[in-house]
Design a protein that fits this description.
alpha/beta; two-stranded antiparallel ribbon; about 20% strand
């Protein structure tokens, strides 16, 4: 069922904290929910659909619906890591189109920094992985998130001649944007030399090739067209969505592409637009290689030419070919709960509304893309692509 033009994002809010030592996880969810609803001009009593992922405490949506006093017709806790929130926007649109709800609330929250979690660099089994079928075969080898992304980066370099200097340009672009974001964890502008001279974490990825670890979260409100028309907010409608999964194919692993190669074309086809029509792109950025490979797979450049595409500041707003992650992204601004997909949608909404920082606001921004990836490029992962339009 196509949902093109049937659902609108009317509220968006990103929590300002990056270190929530004085707040519980449920409190963060409630605070971002309140912020997004106020942004939309709605209240919690208007909400009849609620969507969250694995960052929710206890039984996910059930516990938080109780905590926030929500009376719901639709509840969903789909978990695909960092791509969960693009999926939630698409699934909320489907529920709205089917008449199952009319005001959908989506929340993300996390406290990895306050809890001192070494996300990505420590061998550990999250509770929800213990009974997964792959864990007994992979965990003994001591894999970490970082070294699985390192494998993908090394393979890309081997196949296509991509260099560390080219990857570094992605961090440089993010830092140029983060300097204008008062809430960004890292606001210092860095150079290519700064990135490649930072400590090696997992060859070939340096420390500055990796995302930040933060607390915080964000929320979105998605409604029907009728409700969106009644609100005094700029209208951002969903015109295309695609989702996909990529796995290890029983050991026949191809590390040269991501599931964005599948979800992207599906979203573009539904929207009826091309990559060249996109004025701004929010790209999931757990590592620099994550961005480069998704840009290729979404069709912004040919496979293997991502290094050339991102070099020389081509992702910097006002300078390059494709402005990306103008809030500083996960590389510099915010990456809560081991996933930052919702922040990609939030910044895309800001750009389409003309509410991004003036120094990074894209001129005549009428069509934007928000891309999420969850899992690991080195093994299995989900991908979700949204295409949004300012009405």
């Amino acid at each position: 069922m196509s949902t093109k033009g049937k659902a609108y994002i009317v509220g968006a809010y990103e929590h300002p904290t990056r270190h929530a030592v004085d707040k519980s996880l449920a409190q963060l969810h409630a605070e971002v929910a309140k912020g997004a609803l106020e942004d939309a001009g709605l209240t919690k009593d208007d909400v009849d659909g609620y969507f969250c992922a694995g960052d929710a405490p206890g039984m996910g949506g059930l516990n938080l619906a109780d905590y926030m006093g929500l009376k719901l017709k639709r509840i969903e806790s789909t978990e695909t890591g960092g791509s969960s929130y693009q999926l939630h926007v698409a699934h909320a649109a489907q529920a709205i189109a089917a008449g199952k709800c009319s005001v959908a609330l989506i929340t993300l929250a996390g406290r990895p920094r306050a809890e001192g979690l070494a996300i990505g660099t420590t061998v550990r089994i999250p509770p929800h992985y213990i009974h997964s079928p792959d864990t007994p075969f992979e965990f003994p080898y001591g894999f970490t998130t970082a070294n699985q992304y390192g494998m993908a980066a090394m393979r890309h370099m081997h196949e296509f001649g991509t260099t560390s200097e080219q990857l570094a340009w992605i961090k440089v672009a993010a830092s140029h944007h983060a300097q204008h974001n008062p809430h960004a964890l890292l606001r210092e502008v860095v150079t290519v030399e700064d990135v490649i001279n930072s400590p090696m974490i997992t060859d070939p990825l340096h420390r500055l090739d990796c995302c930040v670890i933060t607390d915080g979260g964000g929320a979105l409100v998605v409604t029907s067209r009728e409700i969106a028309m009644s609100l005094k907010r700029p209208r951002v409608k969903l015109i295309g969505a695609g989702e996909a999964a990529k796995h290890t194919n029983c050991g026949d692993v191809d590390l040269t592409y991501t599931a964005a190669a599948i979800s992207g074309p599906r979203a573009f086809e539904e929207a009826g637009v091309k990559p060249s029509d996109i004025k701004y792109a929010s790209i999931y950025d757990s590592f620099t290689i994550t961005v480069l490979m998704q840009l290729e797979d979404l069709g912004f450049c040919k496979k293997g030419e991502g290094g050339k595409f991102v070099a020389d500041g081509n992702l910097i707003s006002g300078v390059g070919k494709l402005p990306f992650n103008t809030d500083g992204g996960g590389l510099c601004n915010n990456h809560p709960a081991n996933r930052g997909g919702i922040t990609k949608v939030i910044e895309a909404v800001r750009q389409l509304r003309g509410e991004a920082h003036p120094a990074v606001q894209v001129k005549n921004c009428d069509i934007a893309l928000a891309q999420g990836t969850g899992g690991s490029l080195g093994t299995r992962h989900g991908s979700a692509t949204l295409i949004l339009e300012r009405e």
